Structures are given as C-alpha cells and as structure tokens.
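Q: Hi! First time doing this. I have a protein sequence and I read that you can turn it into a structure. Is that right? Here it is:
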Amino acid sequence: MLQSYFVSVCQHLSWWLLSSLLVWEICAFCTASFLHNGDLRSLFGFDSDKRDFDVQNSSDSGSATTESRSLDESLNSNRSSSTTHEDAGCRRRNTYRFLSSEKCHSLLSYRKFRCRTTLNSPRSEQQADLCSAWTLSTWYVTEEDLSFFQGRVESDAEVPGAGRWEEICRNSTTNIKYHASRRSLPDGTTEYMSTTITRDASAVEMLDFFLNDALRQGWDGLISHTEVLAEGDPSSREQVVRWIRTFPFSFISSREYVLGRRAFRRGDDWYGIMRSVDFPGAASESAVRVDRMYSMWRSRTVPSPFGDGGIACETVLLHYEDMKVPEQIARFTVRAGMWNFVKRMAPAMQRFVKQRRKLAGPFDDEPVAVCMDD
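A: Yes, that's right. Below is the predicted 3D structure, encoded as structure tokens:
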C-alpha cells in the first residue's frame, strides 16, 4: 500500500513538472514573439513586415510614427491628381511599436530604399528635400561602416585574435601595380587587403568604375547577373544591388549577394563602402545567399609611378566574405583567381576612363557615370 502511494505521488510530481516546463516554454515563446513583432501576429501566420501600403492610404494606419505621417502629408500636398505613387517616388512601410532595435532598423532601412531619388525621377523640390532628409538617417551603409574601414586600414586597429597579414600576391604590368595580403580572423574565416595602382586614372574615376555593374559583367567573369533593387541619393551613389556569381569550379555552386553601397568623399579621397544587407523580397532559389560580406576601398589620386609624368589612382581594398564552403577551399579560390581578375580589370578600366572623359573631366564628380555603358 505504501509503495503504491509513493508511486502515485511520484507520477503526479512528474506530470506537474512536465506541465510546468511546457507552460514555461509557451510563455517564453509568446513573450519573445511579442517583443520582436509588437504583438502575437506571428503566432498565427501574419507577417507584419509584409503590410506595406502607399502614402495615399496612410490614414488607415493608427500606429505609424509622427515622422511618417508628416512626410506623407507633405508628399500628398505636393502631388497632383495625375501623379502616380511611383512618380512621387516614395513608399513607406507600416511600423509597429515594441520592435526590437534590429527589427526597427530593418524596417526603417527598407522605407529608405523605397524612397527613390533617381536622376530621372520628376519630383518637386520640397519632395526631394524631404526624401533626402528622411533617407539619409536610415540608409544601410552609414558613417559607422566608413569608420570600420578607416580603423582597420588607416589606423591599423587591433583585431583581437586575428592573425598577421601574409602577402599572397605581388605583380605588375605596364599599366597596373598590385599586391595583396590576407589574415585569419578569430572565427577562422579570412580577411583580404590589397593595393592597386592604376595608370592615368583619378580617384573618382576608379570609384565610378567599381560601381558600374553593367560594365562589370563584361570584365568580371564570375558575375552572371546584376540588378538594382533600390536607389537613394545619386551624389552618394546609394544603391542596393543584387549579384549572382557563378564559379568555374564544380564544387562551388552559384552565390547570391544583396549589397548596400554608398560613397563618401573626404577631401580628395573617395571611399566606396559595400556590404551585405537584408532586403525584403530579394531571394534566389538557385543560388546560395552570402549574408556576411563587405568590400570597402579608398581611392586616392597620386603621381604616376610609371614614369610618364601623369597621374595614377591608388586603391586600397579591404574585402571579406563567408562563402559557406570550407575555408581552405575559399582561400584557394580567391588566390587562384586574384591576378587574372586584376588583369581583366585593367583594360576595362582604361576604356571606361576614355568614355567617361567625353562627359566629364578626370576630377569631376559625375554620378551619372555609374550607369554609363562601355
């Protein structure tokens, strides 16, 4: 009898403990979902990120921010009855309270991307000013990204746990000088840094060449597809782009990159900052997404070291990407294709400079050149 009573008590205690753990897990899951999405929509299959709507319907939302409502009213007051939503150039996303800081940043950044300021977009001056002020603070590529590059390259900031720089390539032709190094990062992946000196080119010409995706497909043998997903301030070359890279090795499938990029000018130097970003709706079913990547450079006009008395462009590049393959394979792939990549780039750069100088001088800031075909 006593033994049966003891067994019964143990069974009840076990059920009580299991029930308590189950309730605890459910509460924790609901709390996390609430804090992340602002409510329990995600538990029932609703995605608040997908609830976007046009500026003209903004009165239907009771949870939009004051800033968003002010922008909407200003845009609507400046838009004629015949002007479509896309002509006005701005779309925003619905936002909810109780968003985590990461989620909120993503939504704000997406709103920024949809606020287009392309060269050919006819809008009132007030609309352009509003979009410029609104988008500047929410663009994915920020001053912090520039500081990251400057710290690692110009200030040689210490990276705890990183290895020493190891030279892996040094070569030159009559028009280009190149050397590259690499180092291991604490997580076992690899960071690369290179210096390229290009004959008869200025810093801004090199910047626009690097950002010209239409031209890149002609000389970069790995790029099989490019598209612009969003555009911002043309003077800062703000874009979100999508690349597909196809490798000549059977053991590496195609890779997809969704990249935010922006240019910064500091004195006579130009900085190009490009890194992977999250962008709604950009996904490929046939390629592996590379979601950890940055490629950042500083271009500077210097006296030519080629003995011709002209100018040259010195470009210092910092590059990192997690290709989601064993790191030794990634290192082999980069090193094997590095010099051939530079050799293909050099003549394409010369052709680009020749064409660009028909539109602008070598030191003129001409954002339209980013879209110029060869």
